[in-house]
Amino acid sequence: MSASAETSSSANVLVEIRDLVIGIQRTRSDRLIIVDSANFDIKRAEILGLVGESGSGKTMVCRSLIGTLKRRSASIFGGSIVFDGMDLATIDERKWRTVRGNRIGYVPQSALTGPNPVMTVGKQIAEAVRRNRRRSDKNVRGRVMELLDLVHIRRPEIVYDQYPFQLSGGMRQRVMIAAAIAQDPDIVVADEPTTGLDVTVQAEIMKLLREIRSEFNMSVVLVSHDLALIDEVCDRLVVMHAGTCVEVGSVSDVAREPLHPYTIALNRSRIDIATPGAPLVTIKGNPPAVGEWPAGCRFAERCDFVQQDCTIGPNPPLLEVRKGHWSACLHADALGGSGE
Amino acid sequence: MTAPTHSAEAESPSEPTHGDGPRPQSAGEKILRRTGRAIIVAFWVMVVAFMLIRLSPGDPVTAALGGEAAPETVAALRKTLGLDVDPFTQFWQYFTGLFHGDLGQSLISGVPVTEMLRTNLPVTLWLILTTVTLTLVISIPLAMVIALARIPGLPYIFRTLTAIGLALPSFLVALLLLYQFGLVWGIAPIFGYDPTFPANMQYLWLPALVNCVVLVPVLSRVLYSSILDTLDEEFVETGVIRGVRSIRFYWFYVLRPSLAPTVVLLSYVMGVMVGSTVILEMIFALPGIGRELVTAVTMRDYPVVQGIILVFGVLVVFLSLLGDIIASILDPRVKLS
Amino acid sequence: MTLISAGTADWFDVEGTVPSPKRARRLKDGTLGLIVGLSMLILLLLLGILVPLLSPYSIDESIDIPFLPPNGTFWFGTDGLGRDVFVRVFSAVYLDLGVAFLGVLIPFAIGTVVGIGLAVSRSKVLNGVVGSIIDGINAFPLLVLAIALIALLGPGLQSVVIALSLTNWARYARLARTRAQVVKQQGYIEAAQTLGYSKPRILFKHLVPNVSSETTAYALSDLILVILLIAGLSFLGLGAQPPTAEWGAMISDGRATLQMAWWPVIFPGLALCWAGVSLSFIAEGLTRRERDVKS
Q1: What is the count of residue pairs from A and B with beta carbons less than 8 Å apart?
Q2: Which chains does A contact via 3+ CB–CB distances below 8 A?
Q3: What's the CATH number where C287 sits?
Q4: Measured CA angle at B146 (ends B143, B147), to 5 deg
Q5: Would you place residue C39 in the very low, low, confident or very high pLDDT band (cuts 50, 70, 90)?
Q6: Among A155-164, A213-222, B25-34, B126-135, which stretch is predicted with the lowest mean pLDDT?
Q7: A155: left (phi over 0), alpha (psi -120 to 50) or beta
Q8: What average pLDDT does range A274-287 have in this prediction?
Q9: How close, in Å, is residue A111 to chain C by CA atoms?
Q10: CB-based contact A132 B9, cutoff 8 Å
Q11: CB neighbours of B76 closer than 8 A, spacing ≥ 6?
Q12: Confidence class of residue C104 from pLDDT cuts 50, 70 and 90?
């Protein structure tokens, strides 16, 4: 059931997520499962994309990496998230306080409500630098300026004293990124960080993330529903559907040879390759609602390549079909070569 | 989607809101505008106070003197009240009089109204100050505790108790508490007043408390629901991730961002509170302008009534202005327009 | 508890994970409050009719035994003038509530008309002038203005209603104007105009109902305030005059002798609280339900 770790570069693996199960405990006896067995690795200094429709569970996986599942009333019901000898799925809040923001950073989704509106930008980054310890103000301010510079904000002395609402969306996100990398984390989790930003700004933020990866050797987990974006920016990607990972691999591998019908369908429905004048290609149907997952493969109903055995039995496991390329399709092999 | 107005990588703060709209005003500008608006309202307050006397369906003079007064007395009173000239001249006299600090004299005692104000206004102001302080000191922690403590059923109890509290008549509460604390337990004075601070506190704490019975439910409710809304915001989660803890967290991430909606309420609450000081001064026999007002009304002492009304109106305008300004300092999102 | 864990993920769970069983949900959505409030009010209204009707004593009749404590014959005792407190308290129900109702209805009507009128009018001058007057009036505490007007009108419940009508309308006007401005911008108004509906029709079928729905909510809380206001004014001697049976006046009458006779004060006081609290529960219940529907 579990994906085997990459044998050749296990030193490169920062986080191993195995059989992660996330859900909501509704009543004493009733559980709602939202993520059912997530399996993938996060490697050092890579940009990993996490793609899926809303309801696929990608947000929950992302939250489990920073330990704020409680905010959505969710908990981890099984599996492991191994990071630097710790299992993030089981550590207590005290331990989380040393990891969160420190070793694993977070860039909020909304440029509008992500930053604290009643504090100046400088103060907020300073918080990230200080992390509740007392350090001499000069040091802190210096570091904040350094960070503002790293995210390419001109005139940081002025921006330092401004409030978020005085800045443009792009600048706000840069500030958030500055705060996220303040402690030199190993991983930065970015949950749809370009929501609401226009395309040019989006490109610049992505560029910034790439810089972070290369210059500071940080890994970035980029969550998005936009496959085109992921293709452009990420090194590897994880495709999620209805609470499971259905395909994991490098962006080039997956683009060249998608091994899951869902990925193929996503590819086909991309807006950037749509033909003007022709009807937009969409994926027929809707993903099954949480709690109403059918037997067998959950994509079967919408699948163009569905077969008899797809709808019976348990949810198909993620298996390494090619080297470094996993798929949860029972007939992945047959798909190989028939992709876009 | 706004068209990008820049192509450079680095973003400059000189055009902070790239096409998002007009340049945001500085804090100082906003305050100035708000003050300007307050002054305009204060002007209309003066007009209303002025019109009040002249609004009578009958003739205020005969109403004051009774039907059988001699014509000379009537004319004399009319002249004193300034009612012998046409309305515009009246207003002009009134208006200029204000700037000379002349609000007329009491018909009963002859004492200049401003003199009476000088003696009695401080009492009312002290009462208001004590009330506001006490209300805030109780409401804010209360709202926070109810919002953050995860005791099931607590919010429900809170809502029920506050629904009861805000419907209670303040004069009844005052009577009962005065009886209990004053007569039975003897820990509050029944009458009298000492104007020096802090001696006046022993006369003011109970009336202020009575006011709280009605005001705390109103304020804490709004703050409570506002805090709940704030807790849903993304920046709170970001704060937790950044490792912000305890007091700093409570203040910057929970309380301050929740204060904005309370602003509108503050102005309303000021009005209600200032009004209730009238009844409280009567019950607690405090020598403030509220009590003077009631006496003046029963005696039909128009200049005094008019003067006190004016003061009340301006007071509320000023307090609302103050409240709005403080709120905007605490939360830059607050619109002061 | 929370003090220690501030800024940690532990307190995110604000409302609790385990959701409430169905019973509790009814509590939450405000229905219980609504039912309780309505029952309280209806009970009061019923007693307000039945007691004066069935009571052997009239409100002015004195048995010449003042300050009789509550007993088998006089359930609420007698007041300082030997009158039956029980029948007086319940006779006041329709008086207090009725006057309060008027004191809300008239300002509501005037204010809504003026407010909508302002929002609809294109005259900036009118808006500016009347708007400022409204702001000016609203700056005053209602009680203070009412007291001042009574200086001119003379004390009495009639004056109270007039005073309220002359002053409270401004609050409704401001509310109605703001709301009307918002509604005016709504799509369906434009749609109606494009469809060629006549102005009056748009006004009455669309604008007025939408504006009124929100002002009605305000009116309910205002009703509570006005009841207290009337009682308060009567307490000060400026409202209901003796020998009128009115709660505030009764409390004022019994005030001096509170120490030896609590019943002439407490029972009218309770009735007043009862009325206010029942309305408060109703208002609370309604807003909770509306919020539920909206979310």
Answers
A1: 114
A2: B, C
A3: 1.10.3720.10
A4: 80
A5: very high
A6: B25-34
A7: left
A8: 76
A9: 21
A10: no
A11: none
A12: very high
Domain count, chain C: 1
Distance in angstroms (rounded) separating the CA atoms of residues B223 and A237: 44
In a domain, C233, yes or no: yes
- Best of C89, C138, C290 to substitute, by most chain B Cβ atoms within 10 angstroms, is C138
Whether C109 maps to a domain, the answer reads yes
Give the mean pLDDT of B149-163.
Answer: 85
Say if C9 falls within a structural domain: no
Q: What is the pLDDT of residue C40?
A: 92
Q: Quote the tokens at residue A216.
A: 């500071």
Interface test with A, best of C2, C5, C8 (most A CBs within 10 A): C8
**pLDDT class of C180 with cuts at 50, 70, 90:** confident
Judged by a CB distance cut-off of 8 A, whether residue A168 touches chain B is yes
A23 touches chain C (CB under 8 A): no
- State yes or no: pLDDT of B70 exceeds 80: no
Q: Distance between CA B197 and CA B207 in Å, rounded?
A: 16
Residue numbers in C near A29 (CB within 8 A): none
What domains are defined for chain A? 5-103+183-335 (3.40.50.300), 111-182 (no CATH)
Buried b (16+ CB within 10 A) or exposed e, C98-128: ebbebbbebbbebbbebbbbbbeeeeeeeee
Q: Residue C218's pLDDT is what?
A: 86
A135 touches chain C (CB under 8 A): no
Phi, psi of C58 (to 5 degrees): -95, 170
- Give residue A279's pLDDT: 75
Q: In what order do the strands lie in the sheet with A219-224?
A: A104-107, A187-191, A219-224, A47-52, A236-241, A244-250, A325-327, A319-322
The domain of C281 spans: 53-60+74-291
Report chain A residues whose CB lies below 8 A from the CB of B241: 66, 68, 100-101, 105-106
